[in-house]
Amino acid sequence: MPIQKVDKIWMNGELVDWDDATIHVLTHTLHYGNGAFEGIRAYETDRGPAVFRLTPHIERLFRSAKILYIDVPWSVEDLVTAVKDTVRANDLPSCYIRPLVYLGYGEMGLNPIPCQVDVSVACWPWGTYLGDEGIASGVRMMVSSWQRHDPNSMPPAAKGCGHYINSQMAKVQAINSGYDEAILLSPQGHVSECSGENLFVVRDGTIVTPPVSAGALEGITQDAVRRIATDLGFGYTEGNILRSDLYTADEAFLSGTAAEVVPVRSVDDREIGDPGPVTRAIQEVFYEAVRGKRPEYAEWNEYVD
Ligand SMILES: Cc1ncc(COP(=O)(O)O)c(C=O)c1O
């Protein structure tokens, strides 16, 4: 999806002009893929842009970096402020936000420890990742022949730059096969998650989502779904899901910052059908909450003003 250019990008403590936010071709992360990032959204509200669960996203960025042996030279508070400054500097009512921790120029070789650690924060207007039609009517999914990586080779708890090669393989396979999005299985054969979203199935009014031990990222939207589902009185549990459970689900949906909350229409051509009542109820509350219309979830809206 094309990036829409805006005015400023935060780089190592400075707001620089968009066209000046460049790096050297010998930047370490460009070669070996070690780095960590976040995907965050700011939503339009009556009080101006509200960044959805900004602090938990930045805290996850620090956890990712720790897992990957990267020492971030800023505090959580510094980067929360950096995100707010970047959104404000670009004067956007709503946007997608991409903080990135990367290993910079100056070292080569597989030991990341001596590398300079650089941080950037960019934002731009970005529509929903799987399309408005997907949010309204659902997406068609396939189970990929690419497996999610094993926690002892590439820890899925880290949102590491290089981890996303795995997601890209599955995504391209799904698109080339005529589907909207891919579901990956863990090396143990359990359902893990999608290329960039957590996955949920609904059976008899209970929502089930795979645990981190099945290779899923601990999603911040997933956690919001958990709270909304529980508050609405639905059963909610983390547990292993088999491929066949997807085919026979009453409902299925996915969640993620880029995609938001998206119903699943079919998996491997087994129809699940139109979005069901549980999915619809969660979507409704989610979109009201992110737009600052739900006082009970007010702490999710981190305002830029
Ligand atoms: C692999 C993967 N799983 C799940 C998610 C959903 O996480 P979140 O809701 O925190 O965006 C993402 C997006 O960040 C992702 O890349």
Q: Could you describe the 3D structure shown?
A:
The protein is α+β, with helices and mostly antiparallel strands and about 300 residues long. It has two domains: about 10-125, D-amino Acid Aminotransferase, Chain A, domain 1; about 130-290, Alpha-Beta Barrel (D-amino Acid Aminotransferase, Chain A, domain 2). Helices cover about 30% and strands about 25% of the residues. It is built from eight helices and 17 strands. It has helices spanning about 30, 55-65, 75-90, 130-135, 165-175, 220-230, 245, 275-290; strands spanning about 10, 15, 35, 40-45, 50, 95-105, 115-125, 140-145, 180-185, 190-195, 200-205, 205-210, 235-240, 250-255, 260-265, 270, 300-305. Strands 8, 9, 10, 11, 12, 13, 14, 15 and 16 form a nine-stranded mixed sheet that branches. Strands 1, 2, 3, 4, 5, 6, 7 and 17 form an eight-stranded antiparallel sheet that branches. A hairpin with a 2-residue loop joins strand 11 and strand 12 (about 205-210). Helix 2 crosses helix 3 (about 75-90) and helix 6 (about 220-230) packs across helix 8. The longest helix has 15 residues, at about 75-90. It starts with 7 loop residues before the first strand and ends with a strand. The structure holds pyridoxal-5'-phosphate. Pyridoxal-5'-phosphate (PLP) binds near residues 196, 197 and 217.
